[in-house]
Please model this.
Amino acid sequence: MVRFVREIRDTMWSILVGMRITGKYMGKRPVTQQYPDERWSLPDRFRGFVHNDVPRCTACKLCAKDCPVDCIYIEIEGKGKERQMTRYAIDYNKCIWCSLCTEHCPTNCITMSHDYDHSVYRRDRLVYEFVSEPVTPFKPPRPEKPAKAAKPTPDESSEKEA
Ligand code: SF4
Ligand code: SF4
Model:
């Protein structure tokens, strides 16, 4: 009999605790998000899928050298004016989202985007090809040389000495 009463008491107590938590949220707005129509706004430094803005890529391969898991594939053909990038691909099966590839890019064309929901059924679909046909790598404009200071005229030199 004592056990029966104790079980009723514990049950009532657990219902009360549960209802108290439920009551706390009764007057609040729902927090359920209608994904994918609604999405959280992500922090600026969120690391999503790596993106390369190919028109600004110089094909220098620094990103591929920095990548610790060798998941960036860059293929180049030709030399000099004939130089073309025939492949720029990232294998997201291997990517560890470390962001090292973005550290030394001379044109900042490779970035960690805010994309994160590229679900696929086959793993080979996670190898993203950024170049569909050969492209001429971007050549950044050379920085202008600072203008040489004009030599002082003989009059100016004599004024300084005085
Ligand atoms: S985020 Fe890291 S692992 Fe992924 S491509 Fe860049 S360097 Fe490689
Ligand atoms: S470091 Fe930047 S410019 Fe160089 S190959 Fe990679 S993405 Fe292109």
Notes: The CA atoms of residues 77 and 84 lie 5 Å apart. Residues 2-26 form the longest helix (25 residues).
